Amino acid sequence: MLPTINRYMRMEDYMFHQHMRPAIRRVVTLAFAGAAALGLGPTGAVLAVSSSLPQPAPTVVDYQFLSTGLTPPTQAQCNSAIPNHRRCFSPASMQASYNLQPLYADGHKGQGVTIAIIDSFGNPNMASDLANFNTQMNLPHMCGEPGLTCTSGMPTFQHVYWNGKTQVKAPPSGSNGTGSQTRNIWALETSLDVEWAHSIAPEANILLMTTNPAETFIVDNHEATVITQSFGAAEETFSSTQSLLNLRHAFISAAANGVTVLASSGDNGTANPDFQPVKNPRTFPFPTVGWPASDPLVTAVGGTNLCTDANTGLTVDTTSPPVACQLPANPTGARETAWVGSGGGFSHVFSKPAYQNTLPDGSTAIGATRGVPDIAYQASSRTGVLVYDTAPGDATGGVICPPAPGNPCSAGWYVVGGTSASSPQWAGLVAIADQIAGHGLGLINPKLYALANSARYASDFYDVQTGNNQTDPSIQGFNASPGWDPVTGLGTPNAANLVPDLAS
């Protein structure tokens, strides 16, 4: 969102807080703060040392304000939006695009499962924004929305402020910060995560954990079986390999307790920034990937352009905006192409996990190190999702403030992109799989690759084979290919087939 909600957050520290209760709960604190950039990279690469760890910043890569008021904009408004013509997906059209209706018809909507969403600062209007989003999109309302009478079996929404509630504000005039603590962009990020995790798993509970400082809290292995995180930083931004490895305890614990952890793969393709100098950070001069997506215990979610009809989601549309979906840019009429911003490549820290030893025919080869991402989902803001957010500016409805990069200023409807749209929607799919299985699935990567190497691949996945993720002409990008590739992973889900297979 500057263009996509870039949620790259700094993670300083993982701390387990134990609470005295019949079963000990674990609360994991993740916050980037205090480590310097590490000298990881291709042989011979010389990296300057950063003075601090990556600062958390939302992964919303691109957004565009469309309209004020309670009702969402029309498709015509999206198509004619200035400066970028777009198509906008509603929950119904997105559900149709990824074939969720058969699951819903069988009663599988995530009932009894809780999705934990981690965001800095949050959105002080989240409950009321969610209420209007659900009304306008004909989605189930959630216990926790203002003025709503809760009934038995209703999904719950809980917003937990770790360190007190903050008002949404723009950066102060003359600020020399990186923008990672800009409350209004974090509010948009939060709205995206909550509204779209709910859109995919409409009966699942949502636990939103936010904190005022630039920190992220991952929650309670006994209260959620799915965690989605749309933040990260290039592996090279840590002071040493060990300083990064010291932060993995949460993921180890999650895997041991049946908790699935997903992360956005990033929105910079292969060209990730350092955090120095502060006002104009340089880009690492070689392909990089972001952590935590690069962690083998995390399911990394990349991004695509979704070229289905935005009104119905059922057929491919090669005539409506954006250019990436139109002829001749999409000559084969593919339903999805690789999104250029999709983070992907090969880790400079982690060895190739065993589940990546065997890949489908035609796959891009994975060498000795972990390949990123594992899977993908729609992420381009040009084929983006509609988000309702009234918190920008001074958090009052209808306020229009002076535009600034990375500073959403208007209260109302946005079209949003970035792999931070991909991860929460995949979290919704995993929640449905957890419901079908009757328990948390934990690390799903071995099962994903096993399915891709079986006769189920063609029916479980949409194999994205065109496009690339080279955002900087001076830095190598990668091409999408049959099978696995370092842009879209194994592909995107055909949910009606993949989710039950994942749960089996």
Quickly describe the structure.
This protein has 504 residues and is α/β, with parallel strands linked by helices. Helix content is 20%, strand content 20%.
Describe this structure in words.
- It is built from eleven helices and 22 strands.
- The chain has helices at about 75-80, 90-95, 100-105, 125-135, 185-200, 240-245, 250-255, 420-435, 445-450, 455-460, 495-504; strands spanning about 5, 15-20, 25-30, 60-65, 85-90, 115-120, 155-160, 205-210, 215-220, 225-230, 235, 260-265, 290, 300-305, 335-340, 345-350, 370, 375-380, 385-390, 410-415, 460, 490-495.
- Helix 5 runs parallel beside helix 8 (about 420-435).
- It starts with a strand and ends with a helix.
- About 55% of the residues are buried.
- Residues about 1-55, about 215-220 and about 395-400 have low confidence and may be disordered.
Helices and strands: which structural class?
alpha/beta
Largest sheet: 8 strands, mixed
Number of helices: 11
Shape by Cα distribution: globular
Q: How many β-strand stretches?
A: 22
Low-confidence stretches: 1-53, 214-221, 394-400
Helix content: 10-25%
The CA-CA distance between the termini, in Å, is: 37 Å
Overall pLDDT: 83
- Please give the radius of gyration in angstroms: 20 Å
Percent range for β-strand residues: 15-25%
